[in-house]
């Protein structure tokens, strides 16, 4: 009997050790990277603590969300952000002249929305080709005590006033912990839920145990429909310029999912492309259709960064994924930084030879691209 107990104990121990090693591996514990940049880089003036997501228009005008607060943040980090005056803000940067820095956009509120509780995350812009009007959808986590409260805010951009005019708030039980959003019309969008659990430490355990509880949802202006589920942590979402292909970053699975978009907005998965790093937001090159993905290659350092923003850094990484006939065919690492230039990269895009890199709670950076790119 004693031998059986010992054997069972040995098996359970082996299972636990194997699981711990797997978690350590997927968190980047065994990773080894060499720092490299595609050309000269510099930090953008006027925005120092957060540029989590952005949307670049065809003319280079880029809307940027800033002031994100994560569930994983400690009281020490929250105090650091408070002392540095960090709050929910929206900025505009002209990538034709990034040296001019960013301009903060005025937010004109409505009775259903307050800037005091505004915690912006993912953003997407719908450009009306007839009127030229720009509609912004912004994920808002509403700053409050207790479980995270996700919703989507809709704004109209007033170029003359350099302002965002709030016009609507979308809220639904299908919004668990919303991460990113993708506009499909003036009143329709996809969004991703990156967590099922809305409180700590369950949200982190959900990621590390690779529980497949998150999904992608579409809102058609009337109802919310889950269009894909069973993801470990659905993060960035983007769409090809012909609106036929949708891309989703499954963060903890370290994969990019490719979907065919049907006429009724349902999604049919056509490809799972492993990248072996934790992807955040995805942006589509307006000329080539290729993808730019900002990543956290050593996510255990990301969590340390969230615990102490003032002293702990997290590596940043940007991948360039070649797309042919609606499928990802190859990848190129454009940039890796140990965290001194930019910590915890979250978004990236190239516009006319300039690489723009956003971060969760750190600098916004531009780099001149002097290296050959994939076709």
- Uncertain residue ranges: none
Number of helices: 4
Could you spell the SSE succession in H and E letters? HEEEHEEEEEEEEEHEEEEEEEEHEEEEE
Biggest sheet: strands side by side, in what order?
A: 6-10-9-8-7
Helix content: 10-25%
What percent strand? 35-45%
- Which of globular, elongated, flat, extended, rod-shaped describes the shape? globular
User: Rounded to an integer, what's the Rg over CA atoms?
Assistant: 20 Å
N-to-C CA distance: 65 Å
User: What class do helices, strands and sheet pairing give?
Assistant: mainly beta
Largest sheet: 5 strands, mixed
Number of strands: 25
> Averaging pLDDT over every residue, what do you get?
91
Account of the 3D structure:
This protein has 375 residues and is mostly beta strands. The protein has helices spanning 2-26, 75-83, 202-208, 299-307; strands at 41-43, 53-56, 61-66, 89-94, 103-104, 106-108, 120-127, 134-140, 151-158, 163-170, 177-185, 188-195, 214-219, 224-231, 234-239, 245-250, 255-261, 267-274, 278-284, 291-296, 316-324, 327-337, 345-351, 354-359, 365-368. The protein contains four helices and 25 strands. Strand 11 (177-185) and strand 12 form a beta hairpin. The longest helix has 25 residues, at 2-26. The radius of gyration is 20 Å and the shape is globular.
Name the descriptors.
25 strands, 375 residues, 43% strand, mainly beta, four-stranded antiparallel beta sheet, 4 helices, five-stranded mixed beta sheet, globular, single chain
Question: How do the strands and helices of this protein lay out in sequence?
Answer:
Layout (H helix, E strand, L loop, with lengths): L1 H25 L14 E3 L9 E4 L4 E6 L8 H9 L5 E6 L8 E2 L1 E3 L11 E8 L6 E7 L10 E8 L4 E8 L6 E9 L2 E8 L6 H7 L5 E6 L4 E8 L2 E6 L5 E6 L4 E7 L5 E8 L3 E7 L6 E6 L2 H9 L8 E9 L2 E11 L7 E7 L2 E6 L5 E4 L7
């Amino acid at each position: 009997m004693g031998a059986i107990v010992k054997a069972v104990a040995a098996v359970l121990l082996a299972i636990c050790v194997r699981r711990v090693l797997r978690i350590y591996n997927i968190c980047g514990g065994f990773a080894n990277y060499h720092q490299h940049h595609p050309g000269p880089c510099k930090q953008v003036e006027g925005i120092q603590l957060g540029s989590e997501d952005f949307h670049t228009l065809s003319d280079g005008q880029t809307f940027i969300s800033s002031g994100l607060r994560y569930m994983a943040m400690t009281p020490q980090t929250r105090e650091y952000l408070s002392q540095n005056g960090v709050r929910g803000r929206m900025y505009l940067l002209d990538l034709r002249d990034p040296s001019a820095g960013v301009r903060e956009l005025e937010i004109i509120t409505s009775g259903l929305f307050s800037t005091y509780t505004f915690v912006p995350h993912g953003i997407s812009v719908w450009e009306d080709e007839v009127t030229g009007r720009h509609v912004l959808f912004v994920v808002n986590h509403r700053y409050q005590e207790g479980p995270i409260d996700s919703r989507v805010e809709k704004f109209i951009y007033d170029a003359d006033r350099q302002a965002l005019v709030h016009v609507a708030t979308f809220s639904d039980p299908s919004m668990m912990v919303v991460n990113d959003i993708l506009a499909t019309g003036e009143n329709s969008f996809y969004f991703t839920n990156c967590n099922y659990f809305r409180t700590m430490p369950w949200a982190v355990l959900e990621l590390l145990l690779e529980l497949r509880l998150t999904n992608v949802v579409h809102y058609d202006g009337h109802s919310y429909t889950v269009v894909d589920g069973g993801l470990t942590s659905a993060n960035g979402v983007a769409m090809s310029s012909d609106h036929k292909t949708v891309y989703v970053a499954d963060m903890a699975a370290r994969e990019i999912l490719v979907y065919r978009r049907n006429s009724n907005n349902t999604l049919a998965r056509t490809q799972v492309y492993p990248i072996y790093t934790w992807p955040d937001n995805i942006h589509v090159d307006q000329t080539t259709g290729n993808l730019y993905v900002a990543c956290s290659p050593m996510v255990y350092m990301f969590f340390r960064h969230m615990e102490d923003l003032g002293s702990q850094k997290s590596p940043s990484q940007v991948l360039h994924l070649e797309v042919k006939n609606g499928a990802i065919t190859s990848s190129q690492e454009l940039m890796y930084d140990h965290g001194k230039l930019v910590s915890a990269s979250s978004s990236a895009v190239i516009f006319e030879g300039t690489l723009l890199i956003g971060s969760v709670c750190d600098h916004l950076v531009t780099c001149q691209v002097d290296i050959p790119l994939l076709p």
